[in-house]
Specification:
single chain, alpha+beta, Butyryl-Coa Dehydrogenase, subunit A, domain 1, Butyryl-CoA Dehydrogenase, subunit A, domain 3, four-stranded antiparallel β-sheet, 11 helices, 9 strands, globular
């Protein structure tokens, strides 16, 4: 029976992947270059993706999601990566949805998740600050309780979806003297919010169409009922519990990028002539691609195991950290090897491999730097 269930799931995922691929290639990929120039995705695109049920694929239907599995969610991430659509910030949007699912009250879930699922409300999570990146205990943005409200002062930087964000999951200090136990999460609705300001869209090395921005809070008043988890001081625990899920989806994208880079490069060297013969006939080309193909295979086996462990609830911080650091390191290395085989054309943004090269670098930084990943792994030894 288990084998039959696995085959049925594989067939369902294959059909789902085909539908997602056709949608992404037809409705999103043609706009990627324009989004890069304007530094953000069109809001209409969010509503279109929401209309297809792809924004919150693994969120229960009662909250507006598709009611599918994490495997379906990963298919969407993979197909976006395969089409080189890195502008669309679904990953952050999904992360916020899972914070709400796991820690939000029923009223909070019903208030925000259906709008997020339809693409009517775009979500961001604001952790990083000018003086605190991976050090989440070092955040300085403060939220002081005053009656039925919190008054928030501070700033955030490197916030994906920041420019378009309608809903921000904000990491704040509610008790600065309590260290990790003084961290809380506040859900902030940004529309017409006095004291809230989105700064410039940051000019990045890659992922030019992803609206990464600075956020400023100057006496911003947020209803106390928007506190996530029902009590102050739970934020650091909530962040630590969710990070394995977040790091797994970073790894999912990395593996999809590796596979696509090898696929594109293999196609290119079969056609490209040098010294009177195709590049694929040269031993150096074959050996390099053989190495890259092996990495792609190993990475796929690893990430598929991680996906299964997320689905059955057994993924742990160390394994997710291994997946995040190793796959993103391999993503950068393999894409660099593949770009080399394109020669001068690889350095041109007209070729997908050039964009993949620029977009890949940040994978080793966000979601926790790879140095932090190694530290987390080392603690489990």
């Amino acid at each position: 029976m288990a084998g039959e269930r696995q085959r049925a799931m594989a067939a369902e995922l294959a059909a789902f992947r085909d539908a997602v691929r056709r949608f992404v290639e037809a409705e999103l990929a043609p706009h990627e270059a324009r989004w890069g120039r304007q530094q953000h995705v069109d809001r209409d695109a969010w509503r279109a993706v929401g209309g297809m049920g792809l924004l919150l694929a693994d969120v229960p239907e009662r909250y507006g999601g598709a009611g599918a599995t994490f495997a379906h969610e990963c298919v969407v991430f993979e197909e976006l990566q395969r089409a080189n659509v890195t502008s669309f910030g679904k990953h952050v949007h999904s992360i916020v949805a899972h914070y709400l699912l796991d820690y939000g009250s029923e009223a909070q879930k019903m208030r925000w998740l259906p709008k997020m699922a339809r693409g009517e409300m775009i979500a961001a999570i604001a952790m990083s600050e000018p003086g605190a990146g991976s050090d989440l205990q070092g955040v300085r943005t403060r939220a002081v309780r005053q009656g039925d409200e919190y008054v928030v002062d501070g700033s955030k930087t490197f916030i994906s979806n920041g420019f378009l964000a309608d809903l921000v999951c904000l990491v704040v200090k509610t008790d600065p003297a309590a260290g990790a136990k003084g961290v809380s999460l506040l859900m902030v609705e940004t529309a017409n919010l006095p004291g809230y300001r989105c700064g410039r869209i940051l000019d990045k090395v890659g992922m030019h169409g992803q609206d990464t921005a600075e956020l400023f809070f100057d006496g911003v008043r947020v209803p106390a009922e928007n506190l996530l988890g029902g009590e102050q001081g739970r934020g650091f625990y909530q962040l630590m519990q969710q990070l394995p899920w977040e790091r797994t989806i970073v790894a999912v994208a990395a593996v999809a990028a590796i596979e696509r880079a090898v696929e594109l490069t293999t196609e290119y060297v079969r056609q490209r002539q040098a010294f009177g013969r195709p590049l694929i006939e040269m031993q150096n080309t074959r050996f390099r691609l053989a190495e890259c193909r092996t990495v792609a295979h190993v990475a796929r086996v690893f990430i598929d195991d991680c996906i299964e462990r997320v689905m059955d609830g057994t993924i742990d911080a160390a394994t997710a950290s291994m997946a995040k650091w190793w796959t993103t390191e391999q993503q950068c290395r393999v894409i660099d090897e593949c770009l080399q085989l394109f020669g001068g054309y690889g350095y041109m943004m007209d070729y997908p491999i050039g964009k993949m090269y620029a977009d890949a670098r940040v994978q080793k930084i966000y979601g926790g730097t790879n140095e932090i990943m190694k530290e987390l792994i080392a603690r489990s030894l």
